[in-house]
Every structure is written in structure tokens, then in C-alpha cells.
Amino acid sequence: MDPLTQSSVEPIVQGLSALTGLGAKGNHSSMGDLLTSVQLAANGSSSMSSETNGFGSNESVCTNLSTDTVSEHCRFWIQGILLCAVGVIGMIGNTVSIVVLSRPEMLSVFNQILIVMTAFDTIYLLTAIAEFSFVESFHLTSEWYDLLFVYFLYPLHNITLCCSIYSHVVLAFERYLAVCHPEMVYSTQTRTPHQRTHAGNGYASGGRRRRRRRNPAYSVVRKKV
Fold first, then answer.
1. Residues 120, 114: Cα–Cα separation, whole Å
2. What is the distance in angstroms between the CA of the first residue and the CA of the last residue of the chain?
3. Which of 41, 70, 127, 218 could anchor a disulfide with 157, C-beta 3.0 to 4.6 Å?
4. Which ranges constitute the DSSP H helices of the chain?
5. pLDDT, tens digit (0-9, with 9 covering 90-100), for 4-50
6. Which residue ranges make up each domain of the chain?
């Protein structure tokens, strides 16, 4: 019997026993029947409490099993499928952005910083998909991956994350200079006659890489970046 139920029923039983002993002969049978009914009610409440406790324990076991199953399904669909889909879309968008921002007509300090930041984000997405989707969700691993993860992938994952964060800081600083100190961002560099002759020889000799390296606008932008 539950201690709370027992403590509440015992005074009633004692009082009814006293009334039964002191009652008249005509009322003796009715008082005895009442006492019997109270005891049966107490026994029934104790059996119901034990059944309730058993049901609660079974419910907790079922809850734990369902929680593990739901967690596994969420990991597969969110961390596996959804992360792969969003990561692939992000890498395609980053690649297109790098190609567009690398054009000569898009040459600026802001665009060069965007290219660097996009490259860091792309590498971070690659390492995140390999670590969280392929290994933790799909359980695809090998000996070579374990070696690369310890010595290359795990450091690269954290390094690119740190570099991406600081690239955003640098981009914000560049925007601050462009708004508050535009003369530092949009100023032009005056070249000497020796530099002009050297640049002209570079153009005459041909080669796109050499022309870009001798391009004064590209040199100025690269120096500012």
C-alpha cells in the first residue's frame, strides 16, 4: 500500500472499529459491512498505484527508445541530406562568384577581398560536408580518411573557419575606409618614367600573365588589398 494512502485510511478503520465495538446489536452488521468496504477500497487503491508505477516505468523505456530513433532520423536527414544539398548549392554559387569577380572590369579592393572570403568559405564547406555528412551521418570512412583527418582535414577545417571570420572583419574595415576615408581607397598611384618604360616592355613582349603583372591598376589594387 502507498504510504500516503495507508496513513489516510488507518484513522478511518480505527474509528469504524471503535464504533463497531460500541454500537448496538442491530447496527453491528451494518457497521461491519462498512468496515469491510473501506478495507477493500484501500486495497484497490494500493493495487491501482502499483499498476500506475509499472505503467510509468514502461512509458519511460518507450520514451527513451523513441527519442534515440528520432535523433538518428534527424541526424540522417538534416545533418546528412540537407547539409549536402545546401553545401553543394553554396559551393556552386561561390565558384560562379569567383569567376565573375575575377574579370578585369570588376577589379577593385572590395571584389578582391570578396574573392578571398569566398575561397575560404568554399574550402570550409568541403571539409564540413566530409566530416559531418559523410562520416557522422552516412558512416563512410576509411584508413586514408582517418590519417588525413588527423593531420590535414581537421586543422584545415578550423583554419578556414577562422580565416572566413577574419575576412568578414577585413571586409567591414574596407567598407569603413571607403565611407569615412575615401581618399585612402580611391587614390591613384603616380608612376615614374622608369616604371612606364618597364611596363611598356612588358606589354610588347606578350603574355597575358606578364601584362597583368605589369598592369599598374592591378598592382595598386593588390597593394591595397
1. 10
2. 81
3. 127
4. 3-22, 25-74, 83-101, 109-128, 143-148, 154-180, 182-185, 193-204, 208-214, 216-224
5. 455 555 655 565 555 555 444 444 455 555 556 556 555 555 554 44
6. 72-189
